[in-house]
Amino acid sequence: MKLFLFIFLVIPFVTNSQQTIPAIVAIDKEAFRIVHAGENPDFIATYQDNAWIIDDNQSRVLKISPESKTALLTIPVPNACSAPITGFDAVWVMSCSEKTLYKIDLVNGNILAKIKTGIADRNGEMSLASGDGSIWLLSDSSGILSRINPVTNLVEKRIIVKPHSYCAVSGQNSIWITNYLDNSIQRINTKTNSVTATIPVGKNPRFLTAGELGLWTLNQGDGTVSKIDPSLNKMTASIDVKAPGGGGDICAGSGKVWVISTNTERPVQVINQLTNNIETIYTQVPPAGLPFKADGAVRLSENFVWISGYYSKTIWILKR
C-alpha cells in the first residue's frame, strides 16, 4: 500500500500523455487564406492581425495581412534570421551577417535603428523576446543574454547564462531561455537581471513558448515537448511529438500548443495545454509522391494562426 501511494503521488509530475487519437485535418481545407510569398518563408512575428515573415536566404522581411494574397511590404535586412519579435511600435529583426539587431517601423517598414549586439547562433536558429520594457537577445554562444533599451536603442545589460543558449521568451513575469547542450531552461528575474532557476527538460531544447498554463520547450534531441510549471520551476510533463532533429517551432495560446515538425507524418501538431494530449495533426495531400513538409514556423495573432511552409513557399492562415 505504501508503494502504491508513492507512485500515485509522483507520476503526475512527469507524464508522457498521448492517450487520445489525434484528428487528422487537411490544412489547405482548414485555412482561412493561403498566401504564396517569399522563396523560403520561415520565422514569424505578429502584431494585431498582421505578420512579419523572414524570407530565409533572401535578406528581406515580408509584411503580410490576412486580407491580402501578396505582401504589403518588403523590407531589406542583410541575411535576416532568427524569430523576430514585435514591441514598442516596432518589429525587431536580426541580421546574421552583420550581427546586428534591426528596429523596423510597424506601419511603413522604415528602418529606425541598427544595434550592434552579436548573435549566439550564426545560423540564426534563435528567438528574441520582449518583456518588462526591454528587448532580449542571446548575443554570444559563451552564454550572454543582452537586454536592449527600445527607446535609446542601447544594450543596457549583459547577463551571464549557460553556454549554448539560443532562444528567449517572455512569460510569467520572467525571461526564459533554452540551454541547448545542458538540457535545461533558465529563468531570469527582470528586476535583478539574474538567473533564479535552472530547470531540467528534454534533450537539446531549442525553441520555447509561454502560454496560459505554463511554458513548453521543443526538444530537438529526443523529439519531445517539455511542459514547465512556473510556480514550481519544474518540468511536469513530457509529450512525445516525434519531432527529433533540427528545425521546427512552437507557440502557445488559447489553451493550445502548436508544434511545427520536420516529421512529414506530423508536420503541424496541436497539443491541449490542460490534458497534454495531441489533439490535431494538420497535413495535406502532397504533389506527385512528395511528402508534405512544413518545417517553417508558427505564431498566433489576435484572430489567426500563422504557419509558414519553408519548402513550399506557402503561408497558411487559420482562424483561432
Straight-line N-to-C gap: 47 Å
- Which percent range describes the beta-strand content? over 45%
The CATH class assignment is Mainly Beta
The whole-angstrom Rg is 19 Å
Count up the domains. 1
Question: What are the segments in which pLDDT stays under 50 over at least 5 consecutive residues?
Answer: 1-13
**Gross morphology:** globular
Secondary structure: number of strands: 29
CATH topology title: Methylamine Dehydrogenase, Chain H
Which CATH architecture would you pick?
7 Propeller
Summarize the structure.
The chain has about 325 residues and is mainly β. The chain has helices at about 1-10, 25-30, and strands at about 25, 35, 40-45, 50-55, 60-65, 75, 80-85, 90-95, 100-105, 110-115, 130, 135-140, 145-150, 155-160, 165-170, 175-180, 185-190, 195-200, 205-210, 215-220, 225-230, 235-240, 250-255, 255-260, 270, 280-285, 300, 305-310, 315-320.
Write the layout of secondary structure elements.
Elements: H1 2-10, E1 23-26, H2 27-30, E2 33-35, E3 41-47, E4 50-55, E5 60-64, E6 73-76, E7 80-87, E8 90-95, E9 100-105, E10 111-116, E11 129-131, E12 134-140, E13 144-149, E14 154-160, E15 165-171, E16 174-179, E17 184-189, E18 194-200, E19 205-211, E20 214-219, E21 224-229, E22 234-240, E23 249-253, E24 256-260, E25 268-272, E26 278-283, E27 298-300, E28 304-309, E29 314-319
Parallel strand pairs: 1-26
Antiparallel strand pairs: 2-29, 3-4, 4-5, 5-6, 7-8, 8-9, 9-10, 11-12, 12-13, 13-14, 15-16, 16-17, 17-18, 19-20, 20-21, 21-22, 23-24, 24-25, 25-26, 27-28, 28-29
